[in-house]
């Protein structure tokens, strides 16, 4: 199949190609090299996307009978590091991405350029300093008590994978938009039971698990991505197709929130240190006032943070 370039009807500057799905390949282990294994292209094929360089993002869409599923990933060009070659009319798609859009090796997908929100300098610094590890997840509908709130119910394995504590803020990234400030709350056993009950009682409004769909059956999908539950407003902000149910997204910790939490843990030592300086050291009154003000600001900041981190039960 020829990899003929297509123009996105919504943007004359955005290139896209229909390619055949294949598995990603490894360049071997190297401590100094990050092998993405997300989306891999032949160098000539990557050259057909003039606005995308290696390490940047592309969107992959799989059209099914009942719905279209779309995901995104960083692109990696195959070169001399790799023993196996991906053909110009193929796209190497990682296992999580293939699960996300429910495709098998040999299926045709649409690969296109995508305009994701640029991360600001401060956030880039936080990400570089504290790092984060995304988890691929499947979107489901939230219900009371979460409907209308900026919260996201996630299973414990996702919490452990992304490296957060309950109540931390997380970032949800779809193929079209990024959503910050979502509070991560646990997917309690009673909530899981509630979700199962409503899926049985109202399957039209609350669709069954994705593994029970025709798309998953055709793709031979026995193990799905972890499910997360978010409100309709959150799904709209993520610009998900349709009502957003079943669409794959990536979840990772908000490094700015992690920095604030770590700073909060240091607040008591800072306040105690300030008290020691004021009481135990022979310093000028002006310096004592400065130290006192700094300690007061830290204490008020910590109190405000604890008030905001109260979990919704």
From TrEMBL:
Record-given protein name: Uncharacterized protein
Domain of life (superkingdom): Archaea
KW Transmembrane helix (keyword) present: yes
Keywords from the named record: Membrane, Transmembrane, Transmembrane helix
Membrane-spanning intervals of the chain: 266-283, 289-307
The keyword Transmembrane helix is annotated on this UniProt entry: yes
Biased composition (Basic and acidic residues): 1-16
Region of interest called Disordered, as start-end residue ranges on this chain: 1-25
């Amino acid at each position: 199949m020829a990899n003929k370039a297509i123009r996105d009807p919504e943007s004359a500057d955005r290139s896209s190609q229909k390619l055949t799905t294949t598995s990603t390949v490894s360049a071997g282990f190297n401590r100094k090299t990050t092998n993405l294994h997300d989306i891999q292209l032949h160098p000539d094929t990557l050259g057909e996307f003039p606005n995308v360089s290696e390490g940047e993002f592309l969107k992959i869409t799989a059209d099914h009978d009942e719905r279209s599923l779309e995901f995104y990933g960083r692109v990696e060009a195959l070169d001399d590091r790799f023993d196996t070659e991906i053909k110009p009319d193929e796209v190497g798609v990682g296992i999580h991405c293939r699960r996300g859009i429910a495709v098998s090796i040999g299926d045709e997908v649409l690969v296109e350029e995508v305009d994701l929100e640029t991360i600001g300098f401060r956030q880039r610094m936080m990400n570089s300093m504290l790092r984060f590890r995304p988890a691929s997840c499947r979107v489901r509908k939230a219900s009371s008590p979460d409907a209308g709130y900026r919260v996201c119910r996630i299973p414990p394995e996702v919490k452990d994978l992304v490296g957060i504590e309950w109540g931390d803020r997380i970032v949800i990234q779809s193929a079209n938009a990024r959503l910050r400030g979502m509070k991560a709350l646990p997917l309690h056993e009673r909530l899981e039971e509630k979700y199962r009950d409503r899926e049985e009682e109202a399957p039209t409004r609350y669709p069954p698990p994705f593994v029970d769909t025709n798309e998953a059956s055709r793709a031979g999908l026995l193990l799905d991505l972890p499910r997360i539950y978010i409100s309709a407003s959150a799904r709209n902000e993520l610009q998900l197709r349709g009502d957003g149910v079943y669409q794959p997204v990536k979840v990772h910790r908000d490094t700015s929130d992690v920095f604030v939490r770590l700073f909060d843990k240091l607040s008591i030592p800072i306040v105690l240190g300030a008290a020691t300086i004021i009481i135990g050291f022979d310093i000028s009154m002006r310096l004592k006032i400065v130290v006192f003000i700094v300690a007061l600001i830290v204490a008020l900041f910590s109190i405000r943070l604890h008030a905001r981190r109260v979990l919704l039960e």
